[in-house]
């Protein structure tokens, strides 16, 4: 096996143009490893941060890409988790997803059921696992709760809204452009606040009769933090799981005392460990995908060689998500 394959390689930080297709060595899978012939790789904003140098988490030269799906083409010694021909999805924190084929630790991959299109699976795998962790573990959503989903027209925001609604919550979403507002409604939001023209906290209190939201899921960060905090109910929980507009500034922790509120900053990785947790979460997500319970669409597909164009569109805030066909 082994040989070579094509991949997107970054040799120095910069704009989308620094990503170039190169031929790279494709080793034989070693003990505990599998060789995956990839079908689709997701394009995430995390990849933009890696490419630009905002995150220096990829050793250069390196291949970006956190998640992809494909078919097992070879297995290394001692691997009994998969067989040749199995469909798999994976998230690899060490990157390497922007490639036609790659070698991967078998324990990082999860079985991908037949009937789920590779592009959709790749685009929504990380987002779906993240959302499940948010609504089931970080702050479990139960019937009767009021949930505020900031940026509910975005990728994870739509999933937060839909999954919270499926669990019996009243969901309030925020969105900017009219198209994003409609996406939030389509995702199941009972109320949508146009944050560019309405004060979010004021509207939340109007909708809830002055009680506020039991939980606020916020991936925007600096721009929405104060509004999210003001929107909380007594004993409310502000789940700050991203910072698209920049990190929140330092704040006086005693401000939480008036409502006995809490703020948390979760990351996905502890919620999908050990492997049994990854498998259970993946199976649950794929079942929801197959059942049509989630609002899953693609904003665009690009050949692997056009990764730079996908990044440019992502940075221009074009409606995603985007995938690379490998």
Task: Describe the model.
The structure is a single chain. This protein is α/β, with parallel strands linked by helices and 326 residues long. The chain folds into 2 domains: 4-124 and 270-325, Quinone Oxidoreductase, Chain A, domain 1 (Alpha-Beta Complex); 143-264, Rossmann fold (3-Layer(aba) Sandwich), CATH 3.40.50.720. Helices cover 28% and strands 27% of the residues. The protein contains 8 helices and 15 strands. It has helices at 45-52, 118-138, 155-166, 178-186, 200-207, 225-230, 275-291, 307-315; strands at 4-10, 19-25, 33-43, 67-75, 87-91, 101-105, 109-111, 146-149, 170-175, 191-194, 213-218, 232-240, 262-264, 300-303, 322-325. The strands form 3 sheets. Strands 3, 4, 5, 6, 7, 14 and 15 form a 7-stranded mixed beta sheet that branches. Strands 10-9-8-11-12-13 form a 6-stranded parallel beta sheet, with helices on both faces. Strands 1-2 form a two-stranded antiparallel sheet. Strand 1 (4-10) and strand 2 form a beta hairpin. The longest helix is centred in the middle third of the chain and has 21 residues, at 118-138. The protein is globular. The mean pLDDT is 94.
